[in-house]
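Render this sequence as a predicted structure.
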Amino acid sequence: MITAYISIGTNIEREYHLKAGLDAVKKLASQWRMSRVFEAEPVGFSGDNFFNAVIEIQTLLPLTALQAQLKEIERQLGRPEHAVKNQSRTIDLDLLLYGDVVSTELPVLPRSDIYRFAFVLWPLSELSPELVIPKETQTLAQLWQNFSQQQELWPVEFVI
């Protein structure tokens, strides 16, 4: 069993797509848990605010199969296969961590978004504050405490 962390985000029909994305990802897992949901202003473009969260799953899927399944879920939920960055989207499922795997090939792991975006690090650090990711010495809680990037985001009520 491998523990994987997946960032989920949407700013088109947010409630629907977040629930649909979560339901689909849960089918890939024997166990799962999710951070709080955060509302965040878009980064790099103007558009509607996002709902973001991080899902932790326990899975038997090999890395390449899990990545392929996440891309298929995105496609099924209306995201174009070659979607351009920095635009509105129905769903975005990004593999952040897959066990202790470190990879410079796609998918690059740990995903650099952990260090770049509050909408990834805050929910990830809440979900597993004591986790130390590969090639790191600080816990996720410490990384969040020392995070300096500015982005407006806040927790929101969300019923799963």
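Summary. The mean pLDDT is 94. The chain is about 30% helix and 25% strand.
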